[in-house]
Amino acid sequence: MTDVLDRPHVWLPGSPGHPPLLLLHGTGGDEHDLLPLRAHLDPEAPVLSVRGTVLENGMPRFFRRQAEGVFDEDDLRVQVDALAGFLVAAEHRYAVAPGSWTAVGFSNGANIASALLFTHPERLAGAVLLAAMVPFRDGPPQSDLTGRHVLVSNGRRDPMATADHTSTLVGQFRAAGAETTTAPHDGGHTIAPDLLPTVADWLAGTPLPSPTTTREENS
What we know:
The structure is a single chain. By secondary structure, this protein is of the alpha/beta class. Helices cover 28% and strands 21% of the residues. The chain has one domain (4-205): 3-Layer(aba) Sandwich (Rossmann fold). It has helices at 37-41, 73-94, 108-119, 163-175, 196-205; strands at 9-12, 21-24, 47-50, 54-56, 59-61, 65-67, 70-71, 101-106, 124-130, 149-153, 179-182. This is Alpha/beta hydrolase.
């Protein structure tokens, strides 16, 4: 039987009291791409960085797409279930509290992080979504994201993750009960270095997940 943890990944232990980060790369990246973010977001956080197992013209992704901007939602569901199973195994292997991860995803990684929150909300405390689109064209599965915290940071000049994508995704998260903050920037489909201190402050101020505690925040 194949060990689910054979999936390529990097594990970096951290210090007690620092919630663990789950790093999810964009198309063509790998498990090493986002590791430099740790120094900017929380140098003492435990980090699990995972490689997507789908290849598109030799480039790793987390799920297939039918064309640029058109996702294969059947494959998305299969791959998000596999990622959820991987996280359970990683929690056991690395002694991480179940469901305590905050996903930090860029582009394709942000999209599977959103899908993971909507389909397996018990696996994540929240997510930082960088250059994020809408994973489910006809709306996400019904889910209760009360107690989950989401930060969406998209570029105002992003030709892929457009303003419509941003408003739709934010609306879906808020409708599901997630405390959702936006941090737009003036760039395109990229991670804005100037916004990393804002993301770090947001992470530092985000409480540990509690399904019985909610609060509203305007952004």
